[in-house]
Each structure stands twice: as C-alpha cells, then as structure tokens.
Write a structure and sequence with these properties.
heterodimer, A: 17% strand, B: Rossmann fold, four-stranded antiparallel sheet, 7 helices, transmembrane transporter activity (chain B), membrane (chain B), transmembrane (chain B), AAA+_ATPase (chain B)
C-alpha cells in the first residue's frame, strides 16, 4: 500500500507541474472565498457601525412616546379608536419623582427658520432641558448648555450646533448675540462641539431652546418625546414599570404610552443586519459552488491529459484506490491552496475597505471565515471525486496506447 | 510446473457489429528464465498476448496460470499486486513520467509498493549505477537521450526484482546502435535468470531469442526453439 506522504508528494508534484492550470483553478477558488470574506466583512461592519451608533445614545435610556403601539399583532383592541392623551411637561416632571430615574428631558421638535444679520436658513428646533445634554452626550465648545430652570417658564436663550455657528456667524463670536427663530428672539448662550454623529438628527445643525420656549414657538402644549435615563442598565426594566405606573395614574388609569429602550432597538437592528450578512454570505457561497464545478472540469482535463501516465501507473501495479487517492489529493490541495489565497485576498480587501471608510469596522466574522474555507475545501474535494473515480477505472491497455 | 501456463486463451474484441478474434485457442508454456521473442504482422495478436501475460487485459475464455496460480480469476487489487511484484514492463515509447527525474521514475514501483524512503534511496542509487546512469539521476526525461530513457525505463521495470520482463518493441524508437545496447542490456538481465519476453517487428532482434514464437490471425503459427 502506498504511503500517504508519498501520495501527498506525488500530488504536489503533479499540481506544480502545470502552473498555469493550477493558478487558474486556485484563482477561481480564491475569488469565491475572498467574496465571502469581503462581503461578510462589509455586512458585519455595517452591523457593528449601527450598534455603535446606537450605543452612543446611552444604554440606560428609555424613550417615552405618546400613544400605544400594539406589539402583539392585530387584536380586537386595535380597532377601538383611542385618541391618546398628549404627553405634557407635567408628565415629564412627574417622572423625576421615581427613584430609579436619574435624568429626565422633555422633548419638543419642530421646523422653523433661524436668522441672524440678514442670513436665514431652515432649521430643526429642539425644545428640551438641561439634562438633554447629558443624555445625548452633548458637549459645548463655547458657553454653556440650557440653564436649570422651571420647565414651564422658558427663558429666551438658545444653544446652536457647530454648523449653524459657522454658517450664521462665520468667524464672529456667537455668544451673547441675538438670533431670531420663527417670530421670537433668543440670545445664544452656547455652541455645541462638532460631533457629526447621531442617527436621524445631526446635532451640528440643531438649535436647542428651553422646552417652554419651543412650545410657545410652535404653539403646542404637548411633548414629542420624553427621554428618561435609568440609574443604570440593570435598573431599566424596573424603571420602565415605574414610568408606566406613574403615567397610568396621571392618565386616568389608561396605558396610552409606548416605551422604547435602547436594547430593544439595538436588538432589532442587530437581527436585521445579521440576517443581511448571512444572506450576502450565502450569495457569495454560490461562487464557491461555481469554483467547485471548475475544479471538477480542470481535474477531468488533467485526467485526460495524464491518461497514459495513469495507464503506466496501473502497469507498475498501482491499485484503483491509489490512483483515486492521488487525484483526490491533488484536487484537495488545489482547493486548500485556493481557499487560503482567497482568505488572504479577502482580508486584504477588508483592510482596504477599512482604510477607505474608517467609520466602518469591516472585519469578517469568524463564522464566515470558517464557513468560507470549509465550503471551498468540501466542494473542491466533492467535485474532485468524479474525476478521480474516472481515472481509477481507466482501462490500462487503452490508457497506455494514448500518447 | 512452468512459470507461465496459458490454456486455450480466447480474446475477442467487439468492433461495432463484428467480433475480432485477437487470440484464438492460444496455449503456451514458458519456463522461468526463458528468452522468448514474439513476432508477426500487425494485428496478429502479439500485443494482446503481451497485455494478457502482463495482467493488463483479461481473456474471454481459458486460464492463465502464473507460477502455479490461476491469475485470471484474481480481483483487480490482487492483479495489481502481481504486476507490482512479479512483472516488469518495457514499452516502445518508454512511458516515463515527464515531470519526474530519472531517479523518481525508477522509484515509482517502490513508491506504489509503499517501501520506506531510505530503502528506496539505496535501491535506486544501486540501479542507477548498475544501468550506467550514475550522473543522470536528477535529469528529467527530456534531458536524456533515447537510449538513456530506455535504460531508465528498464531500471524501473527491474527495480522490484520481477520474475519476468515483458518488452513491447523495446528498440522501436531507437537507432540501430542504441537498440543493440538496449537489447544487450535486456539479455544480460535474462542471463541472470529473469524470464524475457519480447514482442518485436525487427527480425534481427527476434532471431536473437532462444525461442521464437510466430503469430498470425490470433493463433500461434510456429514455436521454434534454438
């Protein structure tokens, strides 16, 4: 019986004897594996990016929305029209009494115009309180954030984003200047540090005023949201219960608010993007199947080209098993080499992606690397079986007659 | 008991609708150490006879006893083992593996038999010097002359110390002088006791054998001993 080391050496010699054929086959395998690695790196990078962006909001945040969102599908209750009570500043103030909640920020959002010295632009106006800065991790580059005061009073002061500062004031100092928002005038008391991040709203283009000032501006008494921050992450479930209890008591026993926590939103995005990555990996894996078929074709050609060699080996006393093993080993070697080259290529591509888009943490996940390598090697060997069997069953007399 | 005993061997090839009787009722006994030439026109069945003797082909009917054992009924793996251990082939076109060196070509049967690398090395080195290939061990076939190639092929055929050598036109691709050398080499091996069976077109070479078998239309026409 032939030694396995000799089979390996023989197959290696056979593979390296035809460098072009070997290189092409490895390339096909490599592209397949590289596609899996690169595309999953992209998908997983997007997932990590979104997760990180959400985490920037703070993980013990609870967002209170007016109205009840049914999460249990359509029930009889869904058709009973219930006009929800608005959330009010008093509701927000009531939440501050809960021992589990450290910070509360009421939120009013609307569009308006901002003007200074003849310059005018559309702007998103946010009405909130001092705590909003801490909840959203805003820092001021100049001046200070909204002062601590009675939420129902609302002094005529504003904090503006970095972009607004540049557009309205240029190099002129903004602090202390009077700006006009809608039909009201505010004194600028702070400029936010440039952040650029923040899903949905770009903090650099906001103007933030006290909540009562925003309500007066938009002539509204209700709130858009209430942001509440639990004492810590573990306190979030208990804090949710307390918020519901407090608001239910204030709203005649009706549960007409929806609470969103960071974890729930994060979990949903995580799942969606995870599934997307998996789907992309699946599509990339198709190219591996194509590479497998190529391996089969190339090996069949190799068998045909080496027919007389196979006849010789049989004449020298090689068993069918030995010949099968030689060709199977060759196919496996080519697949493994191709898969490893593809891994390298994929990692290079992912590195290039990270260089081009530094915000995207494009690292291929471990499972994708394992699955890519595994699929490549398994398809290579599987598609190598047929040519190897074909070689083993060649008739030695006919095979020797071939030149 | 003769080394080779063929009894009423039939070999029929199907060519389209017609049957070709490549061998008809061939019965033959060859003793160990004999030097036999098989001659005859193309299509007389001499190559088919050699393939049968070398267990590369199976007869449709009849029995082939090699060293007293009926080898026609052996399974493919057992036949491979008999080829490996008892039979050496020498071909007209040498059949060297082009990507392997002379050494590696000679070592092939040892490789297939699973013999340890250290032993392979000493046996191949011995064979190289025996066949006057001492400095050619690391040359690939395309770097060797025709005569050297055939010597490598003969070294390969004898490395397992087989009981018989089957040569199919061994000088067919060589010039006259080189052919003489190769024939002399084969005869030397025969002188050491290996049965030598040569299929040839060349009357000169055929004449040199001690026993000459003439074939025609798949039958043995004459079988003369010198």
């Amino acid at each position: 019986m032939m030694r396995s080391r000799d089979i390996l050496a023989f197959a290696t010699r056979a593979a390296t004897a035809t460098p072009l054929r070997t290189a092409l086959m490895m390339l096909a395998m490599a592209i397949g594996v590289a596609a899996v690695v690169l595309l999953t790196a992209l998908g997983d990078g997007a997932r990590r990016y979104v997760v990180r962006e959400f985490s920037a909001l703070g993980s013990s945040l609870i967002i209170v929305l007016p109205g009840r969102t049914e999460t249990g599908g359509l029930g009889a209750g869904s058709f009973v029209t219930n006009t929800p009570r608005d959330l009010t500043v008093d509701d927000a103030a009531a939440l501050q009494r809960s021992g589990l909640i450290t910070r509360v920020a009421p939120l009013v959002v609307g569009n308006s115009e901002i003007a200074y010295g003849g310059r005018l632009r559309e702007v998103v106006v946010v009405g909130s309180s001092t705590a909003f800065a801490e909840i959203r991790n805003f820092t001021t580059a100049q001046g200070r954030f909204l002062p601590e005061e009675d939420w129902r009073r609302g002094s005529a002061v504003a904090v503006i984003g970095a972009t607004l500062d540049k557009e309205l004031f240029g190099t002129e100092p903004a602090l202390g200047k009077m700006i006009r928002v809608g039909d009201r005038r505010y004194r600028v008391i702070g400029v936010l540090a440039a952040s650029g991040s923040g899903l949905g709203m770009n903090a650099d283009e906001l103007v933030i005023v006290p909540v009562a000032a925003a309500q007066a501006l938009f002539n509204a008494s209700s709130l858009f949201r209430i942001f509440a921050e639990a004492r810590n992450r573990d306190a979030v479930p208990a804090a949710k219960d307390q918020i519901l209890d407090i608001l239910k008591a204030r709203h005649d026993g009706e549960e007409d608010v929806t609470l969103i926590t960071q974890d729930a939103v994060l979990g949903t995005f995580d799942r969606i993007l995870g599934a997307l990555t998996l789907a992309v990996a699946g599509i990339a894996a198709i190219s591996l199947a194509v590479a497998g078929i190529l391996v089969m074709n190339v090996m069949l050609v190799a068998v045909t080209q080496r027919t007389s060699e196979i006849g010789l080996l049989k004449a020298l006393g090689a068993t069918g098993r030995a010949i099968r093993l030689m060709f199977l080993t060759e196919a496996a070697l080519l697949s493994i080499a191709g898969a490893l080259a593809g891994l390298l290529l994929g990692h290079l591509g992912a590195w290039g992606l990270r260089l081009a888009f530094p915000v995207l943490p494009a690292y291929p996940p471990d499972w994708a690397i394992l699955a890519g390598l595994g699929t490549a090697i398994v398809t290579g060997v599987l598609f190598g079986v047929m040519p190897a069997r074909h070689a083993a069953t060649l008739d030695p007399v006919d095979a020797l007659a071939k030149r | 008991m003769a080394q080779i005993e063929l009894d009423k061997i039939q070999r029929i090839f199907q060519l389209g609708d017609s049957e070709v009787h490549a061998l008809q009722d061939v019965s033959l006994r060859i003793e160990a150490g004999e030097y036999v030439s098989v001659m005859g026109p193309s299509g007389s069945g001499k190559s088919t006879l050699l393939n049968l003797l070398g267990l590369l082909d199976r007869p449709n009917d009849g029995t082939y006893r090699l060293e007293g054992r009926d080898v026609t009924t052996l399974g493919p793996d057992d036949q491979a083992r008999v080829r490996r251990e008892r039979i050496g082939f020498v071909f007209q076109s040498f059949h060297l593996v082009p990507r392997l060196t002379a050494e590696e070509n000679i070592a092939l049967p040892l490789l297939l038999a699973g013999i340890a690398p250290a032993e392979r090395k000493t046996r191949v080195a011995q064979a190289l010097s025996d066949f006057g290939l001492g400095t050619r061990g690391d040359h690939r076939p395309d770097q060797l002359s025709g005569g050297q190639r055939q010597r490598v092929a003969i070294a390969r055929a004898t490395i397992m110390q087989p009981a018989m050598l089957l040569a199919d036109e061994p000088t067919g691709n060589l010039d006259r002088a080189t052919g003489e050398d190769v024939t002399a080499l084969l005869e030397t091996l025969n002188g050491r006791g290996v049965t030598l069976i040569v299929v040839t077109h060349d009357p000169h070479m055929g004449e040199r054998a001690h026993r000459r078998i003439r074939m025609e239309d798949g039958r043995i026409q004459s079988d003369t001993q010198r």
